[in-house]
Design brief:
By secondary structure, the protein is α/β, with parallel strands linked by helices. The chain contains 9 helices and 8 strands. The strands form 2 sheets. The chain has a 5-stranded parallel sheet, with helices on both faces. Helix 4 packs parallel to helix 5 and helix 6 packs across helix 7. The structure holds BIS(adenosine)-5'-pentaphosphate. BIS(adenosine)-5'-pentaphosphate binds next to helix 1, helix 2, helix 3, strand 6 and helix 9.
Length: 220
């Protein structure tokens, strides 16, 4: 299945995508992670994206679409993919349809993780990420066993520069203006399933797996 995760910054897309990808045995493709990796490696793509990410703005559509198109052409994506953070604009959603159609595929399911804005800010403020495997933690809601150290790979945990309070708020505003219209875009196409993102991490995952099973039955 080709699954899109939709939700505001801090809604839990990355946290849930990791688990869902493991459950379904398909890759988790997160545009934010791809940009941060390019940035870490100092590639032209990373340098181009940096100013936008630092300000909490979206990287231009053409750049983002080209990056995703290249990633989706890789063989590990053939059985299906979980897209986290893409599409984020209607133009990206239309491009995704075109790219998938080129491989004889389509978007099968869109899981929209709904979380109230005040909860989003609480989550972003306490978030820690592993530098090596991108594992996601939270000081209160999902603490690592040892502070500052990833449970999975032992990597160093850090706080994202775009999680600074002023940038967080701007990212939520950008989401409301540019990405939230995708909720209706996908609802009108009968692809959207809404998930209550304010349950515990395990409960959200269980709701998502139920939605995937319903989606698989519909596809058959
Ligand atoms: P990106 O990295 O995609 O950031 P985002 O969408 O802002 O999403 P986040 O990673 O902040 O949140 P999340 O929903 O994954 O939440 P998480 O699971 O970490 O994008 C960064 C930047 O890259 C953008 O601003 C833009 O510049 C650029 N970019 C990326 N994609 C682009 C695109 N398509 N087009 C243009 N530009 C693009 O969870 C958050 C915290 O909450 C964690 O600490 C977690 O432990 C905790 N948590 C999770 N679930 C729960 C729960 N149920 N209960 C309690 N705590 C929870």
């Amino acid at each position: 299945m080709n699954i899109v995760l939709l939700g505001a910054p801090g809604a839990g897309k990355g946290t849930q995508a990791e688990r869902l990808a493991e459950y379904l045995g398909i890759p988790h493709v997160a545009t934010g992670d791809l940009f941060r990796e390019a940035l870490r490696q100092g590639t032209p793509l990373g340098r181009q994206a940096q100013a936008y990410i630092d300000r909490g703005e979206l990287v231009p559509d053409q750049v983002t679409i080209a990056m995703v198109e290249e990633r989706l052409a890789q063989p590990d994506c053939e059985p299906g993919v979980i897209l986290d953070g893409f599409p984020r604009t209607v133009e990206q959603a239309r491009a995704l349809d075109r790219v998938l159609a080129g491989h004889g595929r389509k978007v099968d399911l869109v899981l929209f993780i709904r979380v109230r804005p005040e909860e989003l800010l609480r989550r972003l403020s306490g978030r820690w990420i592993c530098r090596d495997c991108q594992g996601v933690y939270h000081t209160l809601f999902n603490p690592p066993k040892q502070p500052g150290v990833c449970d999975v790979c032992g990597g160093e945990l850090y706080q994202r520069p775009d999680d600074r309070p002023e940038v967080q708020r701007h990212r939520v505003d950008v989401y409301l203006a540019q990405t939230a219209p995708l909720i209706e875009f996908y609802r009108e196409r009968g692809l959207l399933q809404e998930i209550d993102g304010e349950q515990s991490i395990d409960e959200v995952q269980a709701s998502m797996r139920e939605a995937v099973i319903r989606g698989q039955k519909k596809k058959e």
